[in-house]
Every structure is written in structure tokens, then in C-alpha cells.
Design a protein that fits this description.
Pfam families: CM_2. One of its GO terms (biological process) is salicylic acid biosynthetic process. With 114 residues, the protein is an all-alpha fold. It contains 4 helices and no strands. Helix content is 78%, strand content 0%. The structure holds prephenic acid (PRE).
Length: 114
């Protein structure tokens, strides 16, 4: 399919009988694709920052994990999730998953320095 789109093309496609039979679903999916792209970009930025944190911690002999900080982050995100009608349990699991990956990265940075 060419990148040519817009009204003229759409009208011709419909007239030819090859219109998308599920254009509502297609529109939902376009939005999902945009949101997934935003999530990836946000995660990429988060991991760039945590990489800098990992180097800082390694350079200052700080432990990779900070459980007190994590407790505050989880409480805050659970509260934000509830207010946004998102499952707080899911939000905590998601943050835990991300933070655990960050801790592994921090450990690798420290190990490489030893
Ligand atoms: O804030 C820190 O100290 C970090 O290393 C970042 C981070 C995070 O990903 O948010 C990761 C590990 C720590 O246990 C707490 C938080």
C-alpha cells in the first residue's frame, strides 16, 4: 500500500469496495500504537537517567538498591494509579519490574568498576 492517503484515496478505495470493514477497531489500534510508542520513549528516557544514577552510585560507593526510596515511589504511584482508575496492584508490579531491572544495571556498573 502506498503512503498516499487522504480523502480522495479513501473515497476511491471505498468506491472500489475494499474499505476497512473494521475501521473503528483500526482507529483504536492507531491510538494504541501511539501510546505504546510514547511508553517506549518514556522508558528509554527513564533508563538513560537511571544509567547516570548507576554511575553516580558506583562512584560514591552507594548500594544499588534503596528500599526506603522504593517504598515511597510505590506508595506514590499506587495513589496516582487509584486516582487515574488504574489498578494499583498492576502499577506496583510494573514499577517493581522496572526498578528490579534498574538494580541489575546498577550492579553491572559496579561489578565492571571492581
Ligand atoms: O533512586 C535511586 O536510588 C535509583 O537507583 C533509582 C531507582 C529507580 O529506578 O527508581 C532504582 C533503584 C533504587 O532501589 C531506587 C530507585
Amino acid at each position: 500500500m502506498s503512503e498516499v492517503s487522504g480523502n480522495a484515496h479513501e473515497h476511491l478505495a471505498q468506491a472500489a469496495g475494499d474499505a476497512d470493514p473494521h475501521e473503528v477497531l483500526t482507529a483504536y489500534r492507531q491510538s494504541i500504537d501511539n501510546i505504546d510508542a510514547a511508553l517506549i520513549h518514556m522508558l528509554a528516557e527513564r533508563f538513560k537517567i537511571t544509567q547516570a544514577v548507576g554511575h553516580y552510585k558506583a562512584g560514591h560507593n552507594l548500594p544499588p538498591a534503596d528500599p526506603a526510596r522504593e517504598e515511597k515511589q510505590i506508595a506514590r504511584l499506587r495513589s496516582l494509579a487509584s486516582a487515574a482508575q488504574l489498578d494499583p496492584e498492576f502499577s506496583e508490579k510494573f514499577l517493581r519490574f522496572v526498578i528490579d531491572e534498574v538494580i541489575h544495571h546498577h550492579e553491572s556498573i559496579q561489578a565492571a568498576q571492581e
